[in-house]
Specification:
Structural class: alpha+beta
Helix content: 40-55%
Low-confidence stretches: none
Number of domains: 2
Number of helices: 12
Mean pLDDT: 84
Strand content: 15-25%
Shape: elongated
Number of strands: 13
CATH topology of the largest domain: Jelly Rolls
Length: 316
C-alpha cells in the first residue's frame, strides 16, 4: 500500500458536513466552521477567496477549482474581495447573520442547498465540505500544504466534481455514506494534483515513491507496521544491501528507514488510541512493540503523554 493510500485508508471521512451554496449579486460569506481541513469546490462562476489573517492576498477561484483549506483559521468567500461579509457559516453548516439571526431556513433552497439566489439563476455555485480527520496519520499528509491550496480542475477532477454535485442534492438511503466516499475521492484527487503540479516542497515520501527501492520499502512499512522490521530484514526483503537502502531512503525521504518506521508506528498508535477500543497492550502489538512498557516509553517520548493519558485527553 502506498503512503497516500495508507493515510486515506486510515482517514475515511465520517459524517462530512456538505453544503451547496447558490449565490448571485453582491455577496460574501465568512466561514468559521473550525475543521482541521475543508474543501471548497467551485461548480460554476467564480469567487474571491480571502484568508484570515491578512496580509495574504485574495485568490480568484473559478469553475472546476478545488480549494483545500488547512487549519482552523476562518476565511471569506465573496463575489469580490472588497465585498464585506454579511453571513457567517459556523460548525455543522449553521448559518447566521452578523447580528446573530439564524438563516438556515430563510435562505434554504432544498436538500443541502443554501444561498441568496432564491428562484433566480445564480452567478456562482460552490460546495463546501468539512470534516474531522483521523488525526496523527492524516497530519503527515497535510503538514506540507499551505494554509490554503488552490487546485485547478483537470479532466479527472471535473468528472468527480460533477458526480459530487449531482449526489449532494439527493436524499436517498445510505446517502451520507455515498457523500463521505465522494468527498474522500475529491480530496485524494486534489492532493495528487497539488503534489504533482506544485512548485513548493512536497513531502519526501511523495517524491520518493517513484524510486523502485524506496517506494517498495514505504509500501512494506505502511502495510506491515507491526512486523519486526530491522534495516537488515527490510534490505533483504528488497534484495539490496543495507547501505544502498539507507542511502536511497535517506536521499528520497529525508530520514533513515527505521526512524521513519518509528514515526509511522507512533502516528498509527495515536489514531488507534483515539479511534478504537483496543487496549494499550493491543495497540502496542498492532504497531510492532513487544510489550506495553516499551511502547509507552516510546509513545510518551513522542507525544509528551503516556498512552492512557493521551486517550483520556482525546476523549475529553
Amino acid at each position: 500500500m502506498d503512503v497516500l493510500s495508507a493515510v486515506m485508508d486510515a482517514h475515511r471521512a465520517r459524517g462530512a458536513d456538505l453544503l451547496r451554496c447558490e449565490m448571485r449579486g453582491a455577496w460574501a460569506l465568512r466561514v468559521e466552521d473550525d475543521p482541521p481541513v475543508a474543501v471548497v469546490v467551485v461548480l460554476s462562476g467564480s469567487a474571491a477567496l480571502c484568508a484570515s489573517p491578512p496580509p495574504r492576498p485574495p485568490q480568484l477561484v473559478s469553475a472546476g477549482d478545488i480549494v483545500i483549506v488547512k487549519g482552523r483559521s476562518p476565511y471569506t468567500l465573496g463575489d469580490t474581495a472588497s465585498t464585506a461579509p454579511t453571513v457567517v457559516i459556523e460548525p455543522g453548516n449553521t448559518c447566521r447573520s452578523l447580528t446573530g439571526e439564524h438563516l438556515d431556513v430563510s435562505m434554504g433552497l432544498g436538500t443541502r442547498t443554501w444561498g441568496n439566489a432564491g428562484s433566480g439563476p445564480p452567478d456562482t455555485v460552490f460546495l463546501t465540505a468539512s470534516w474531522r480527520l483521523a488525526g496523527q496519520v492524516s497530519g503527515r499528509l497535510l503538514d506540507r500544504l499551505p494554509e490554503i491550496a488552490v487546485v485547478h480542475g483537470g479532466t479527472g477532477l471535473i468528472s468527480l466534481i460533477e458526480l459530487l454535485a449531482h449526489e449532494v442534492q439527493r436524499n436517498l438511503p445510505g446517502q451520507d455514506v455515498v457523500l463521505d466516499r465522494l468527498v474522500d475521492l475529491v480530496l485524494i484527487a486534489a492532493l495528487r494534483s497539488w503534489f504533482d503540479d506544485s512548485d513548493t516542497a512536497t513531502p519526501g515520501w511523495w517524491a520518493a515513491r517513484s524510486d523502485p527501492v524506496v517506494g517498495q520499502a514505504l509500501s512494506l512499512l505502511h502495510d506491515q507496521p507491526g512486523a519486526p522490521w530491522t534495516l537488515e530484514t527490510l534490505a533483504r526483503r528488497l534484495s539490496v544491501s543495507r547501505a544502498t537502502l539507507s542511502r536511497r531512503f535517506r536521499l528520497g525521504v529525508g530520514q533513515p528507514p527505521m526512524t521513519y518506521l518509528t514515526q509511522w508506528r507512533l502516528a498509527r498508535a495515536a489514531d488507534l488510541l483515539s479511534g478504537s477500543e483496543l487496549t494499550v497492550e493491543q495497540v502496542a502489538h498492532e504497531v510492532g512493540y513487544a510489550n506495553a512498557f516499551a511502547f509507552s516509553t516510546a509513545f510518551k517520548r513522542a507525544h509528551d503523554l503516556a498512552p492512557r493519558d493521551f486517550r483520556r485527553a482525546r476523549a475529553g
